[in-house]
Amino acid sequence: MSFPEPKPRGPVLPQKRLKTLDCGQGAVRAVRFNVDGNYCLTCGSDKTLKLWNPLRGTLLRTYSGHGYEVLDAAGSFDNSNLCSGGGDKAVVLWDVASGQVVRKFRGHAGKVNTVQFNEEATVILSGSIDSTIRCWDCRSRRPDPVQKLDEAKDGVSSVKVSDHEVLAGSVDGRVRRYDLRMGQLFSDYVGSPITCTCFSRDGQCTLVSSLDSTLRLLDKDTGELLGEYTGHKNQEYKLDCCLSERDTHVVSCSEDGKVFFWDLVEGALALALQVGPGVVQSLAYHPTEPCLLAATGGSIHCWREEAYEPESGTG
Amino acid sequence: MAAPDSDSDEDLVSYGTGLEPLEEGERPKKPTPLQDQTVRDEKGRYKRFHGAFSGGFSAGYFNTVGSKEGWTPSSFVSSRQNRADKSVLGPEDFMDEEDLSEFGIAPKAIVTTDDFASKTKDRIREKARQLAAATAPIPGATLLDDFITPATLSVGFELLRKMGWKEGQGIGPRVKRRPRRQKPDPGVKIYGCALPPGGSEGSEDEDDDDLLENVTFAPKDVMPVDFTPKDNVHGLAYKGLDPHQALFGASGEHLNLFSGRPEGTSNLLGDIGVNKGRKLGISGQAFGVGALEEEDDDIYATETLSKYDTILKDEEPGDGLYGWTAPKQYQRQKESEKDLRYIGKILDGFSLASKSLSSKKIYPPPELPRDYRPVHYFRPVVAATSENSHLLQVLSESAGKSIHDPGTQSRHQLNASKRGELLGETPIQGSATSVLEFLSQKDKERFKEMKQATDLKAAQLRAQSLAQNAASSRAQPPSPDVGHGSWHTALRGGTVTTKASNFKPFSKDPEKQKRYEKFLASMKRGQKDALEHCLDPSMTEWERGREREEFSRAALLYASSHSTLSSRFTHAKEDDDADQVEVPRDQENDVNDKQSAVKMKMFGKLTRDTFEWHPDKLLCKRFNVPDPYPDSTLVGLPRVKRDKYSVFNFLTLPETASLPTTQVSSEKVPQHRGPDKSRKSRWDTSKQEKKDDSISEYLSLARSKVGPLEQESSPFVNKEEVHMKESLSDKPVNKGVDSQAEGGDSRPSMDLFKAIFASSSEEKSSSSEEEQGDSEDDQEGAGEAGFRSPQEELPSVAHTDEPAPQEPAPSFVIQKTQIDEREEFGPRLPPVFCPNARQKLEAPQKEKRKKNKEKHKTKKEHRRKKEKKKKHRKHKHKGKQKNKKSEKSSSSESADSSDSQSEEDTADMSPQELLRRLKHLPLQRQ
Description:
The complex is a heterodimer of chains A (315) and B (926). Chain A is 0% helix and 51% strand. With 315 residues, chain A is mainly β. Chain A has a single domain, classed as YVTN repeat-like/Quinoprotein amine dehydrogenase (Methylamine Dehydrogenase, Chain H). In chain B, strands 1-2 form a two-stranded antiparallel ribbon. Among the domains of chain B are: 83 residues, no CATH class; 62 residues; 57 residues, no CATH class. In chain B, helix 9 packs across helix 20 and helix 28 runs antiparallel to helix 29. Helix content of chain B is 38%, strand content 1%. With 926 residues, chain B is mostly helical. Chain B has 32 helices and 3 strands.
């Protein structure tokens, strides 16, 4: 006999600092969860990419091969590959297990700010300061990109991919959404340089953070403003933002060492976590659990909800 | 039976058939297992039931062709011996026997057809219907049903049949056999004109004269004329080559594509062919002897008597024209032979005309005037007032003709009385046609005066514009296009470079591109009528006009945009062929509107642009998405891109200084007309504050000569021009420059100034840099190109945080590098080799706070602090610090040269520093 689904609990926010990992790779440029949230990747300024178990705090592997600092990384859906991009203008496809470079895609004329796999990890999309997004084919041996999306007028700071869309935020103050299925490009003007964009998990909205210290929640289809979230400080740096695991809260880094949580619907500030004294430059939210990774300086911090009890054997 | 007891027998009701009682000693029968309970067809094959009951049928092996072993082709049998009796295979040859059986798909059994079926076949049904009619709510309602029986035959047929007509007979009273008509002797030639087509009754004659006199016959059936509409482009009565006829059919005859129905002769010959046993292959002189040909006796078209008619016949048996009253040409074939030789075969139902048609006189269409365009061009209506008389003048000039030309006043503008006046008629007397006539004399006079006054005004205006028109039309070729005069001057004004040909505005159409290039070439040689020569003479006047317009426009647009310049331009995203749009509307254009929309938080339609975008086919494949544009080869945004800040706009700049104002303004006119005249630069937000000053004017002129930097300036210059409605002298330029000189968002122009004069002190530039860095708009002004030019370096850009950018650069670079390390797009790196994370966290934070404080301070202070800070940290990363110092001193910068950094670094450094650095290298590696 099956009971009805228990009443949806109120969203729990990660408030307890579970772990602090000193990554030992210079500044942590970005921290990313893998697809199921069991592992995370940290991009270091010492040209390395590291794979961690954030809950146990164990370093699993170090991937070195970049020629300059690593700025972003992403894992494939099957955890078999990683991609990363960095200041050496290259996009690198890694084999997770062996730690070897599978392919190196060269062609960007500037630093690669952001990389993403598509849903099936057949294409890597990389956004660069050279104002292009390039789609690299992982299947063929083609050295040049499948397509170059050069509509941005300035550096591309953020790229996100859904099953049929590419969402790109650019420093020219526009969020561009390339809809492959419809064959259309939607360009939303936000005005201020965009530091980070992301889809909501239900795929209906896009969250846009820009350098005017504002996060905006836009309706994906119409471009209408659904919500505005302010209170944090983001005027200079490329900071990450994201939505919580159930789209209940909007999460953003801040330049004053905090991570801000806003209620998505009401727009009210729900929580401001003091992560560290410095800028919180990157964060990642667990895909299913209230677990937050925030990178500040050279370390990452793992936050869980208050009720969370670390499993036995957690080192 | 099943129950042995008789009592219970009465009580019980038994259904079904009882089992037979077992006999003694007999073993009970085993029930047939399920797998044996099969149905087989008459050939013993398993039959499966498909569909409801046995309605469906299965073919082959589990609905496949063939058997369990697969499909086996029928074994080859040589047909060499029995080729003659090999006939054309019909569908029946491939059908199974079941299909031909009574319930198959093609039953072969003899069945009564509908025609012969008894009408009262279904008596039961009729009875039922009668009953139903009686009991129906409306008695006799079913009577209607009787009337509305589904008609298998038309009423006419029914009626005819009732009257005793049978199919195959003609209609009409039965006829007695008529005596055969005398035919003219074939030997006797008949001279003169053809007989009138009256004697065609002869077609009803019959050869048969064995029949008795008193026997009447039904008239012959009439072949209805085929009235199917002709829907192909073949000749009349042409039928395509019938493969059956060509390959298997009568081989003795030439393939006759025009005989719908075989003629007598062809039948005859066909018979011969069949008799000879030749059925296959194409033969005849034209085809030679094929490999399939068995006998080659016939290849030279031997003439045998058997091919000719030896018997005189009235009419060909195969002919179906009985009764059809059209002339029978074959009766007169001999007479009309001569004509036929010319014309060929005459179609059925036609005969040669006896008298020739009087030829119609053909009048050529009237010649159109050379500059006639069948498209009406709407000119903006400008009321003639004193203020805009200049604009009016410009308009009329650009149009090449006067707007109010009394001579060319359209006749539609005249009313009847005016027309009458023109024709010299006397006005109609009689009933009053106008209200005026009811007015008193005094009022009439008053009206007249008023009218005269207005007329006078209008006449003056007309005269004025006429004079202008005359002047301008003399100067211009009669081309009607708008920018005609302007491109001429533009091209000959020395602005045309050889690079113009690098642009291929018509690359989609190579022919057109060729013409365009030719036009450019001849243009360079200074031919005035180049355009007329280059146009394709086979084009229509309208096409010519259109192309002329395009060429001249393209010549203007692409004139001096050579490749290096164009690569620095940002590209427009709109279609090239848009007729009226000078610079296509682009998402960038209405940034101001969008900004205000953003400010008002009116996101949505106002801030959204939607474009057609073509993903690469492979990308779609990889994304598992169907290609949205399966038949387009284009990738990305459609249409060839074009300079957004088109050269056109700054081509006008030198002209403004050098050319007479009328000329310039005539160029501007199309811009005014463009739908996007309110288009603004995203930089000139402060355009309201306008001020003239001579320095800026000078600057703008200087800038126009600076070369690559021009593209920076052109946008706002352009925009300013657009805003200006009146005659454009250099005023707008000044304003544009001014607007940039003032206000927080004026940075680009400031940078430009710096770039031009390259003498500004670093302090100044840095302070301006700081201020602008604060302003929000300044992020707006992010550079167009992928890489920013150093002046445009912004905090927003994720620029290098590497210690030492090196490339030598203009003077404002020093401050730039500082910005680089400070205002980094992403936090500064903590020292890599620092073991303690806590400390690491501290450093950038402190620095940051200071940074923020410093923002509004002057550059010098800032620098000092920086250095202090660095000294503070010196023990941690000496090497880095040194690098920074050295970089500062060398005043170098680089946005993205992070890769090449180390090499260049070393080049710049002193040996000591190098050594020091080397020492630190392993540390950095760790």
